[in-house]
Amino acid sequence: RQEKYRRVNKKLFSCDEESDPEPSKGGRVPRQQPDVPVSGATLLCLAKADTSLYQKAKRTLTAERDVTIVGRQKEIELIGSFLRRHLEAGSSASMYISGAPGTGKTACLSRVLEAVKATHKFECLFVNCMSLKTSASIYEKILSGLGVPVKGSGHLDAIRARIGDKGRPVVIVLDEVDQLDSKNQAVLYSLFELPQLKGSRAVLFGIANALDLTDRTLPHLQACGSRPDLLHFAPYSKNEIAAILADRLRDCEAVVHPQAVEFCARKIAACTGDVRKALDACRRAVELVERSSRAQQLLVPRPQHGYNPGSPKKPPSLRAVDVAQMARVLAEVLGSRATGGRDLHATLPLQQKLLLCALVATLKKRKQRDVGLGGLQEAYGRICRKQQCATDQMDCQSLCTLLESRGLIRVKRHREQRLCKVALQIDEQEVVYVLQDKALLAACLDDAS
Question: What residue stretches are annotated with the Cdc6 C-terminal domain (predicted)?
Answer without folding.
Answer: 356-435
